[in-house]
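---------- Forwarded message ----------

FYI, see the Ig-like domain-containing protein record below. Original note from H. follows.
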Amino acid sequence: ANLHVIYAPDFVSGLKDKTVIAKETVELIVKVAGTPQPTLTWLKAGKEIKADEKKYSIIPIDKDGNAKLIIKDVNEEDHA
């Protein structure tokens, strides 16, 4: 018989406030934990952020639980 222990998803380290100069690139990093490994969806104003070639890059959760959203060419519309 096997015993599988499940842990609820949890943010070990959440988002931190950042001040960024317009037109620069910013990296938003979180650390999550849970078993099985949680899935993460990045949201802005309640809508899912999708990776694209120009503006957003999403680095999925790695083995250590770190995930990253990279926003290129930051402008006032990126303010949350």
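H. also flagged this: The chain has one domain: 7-78.
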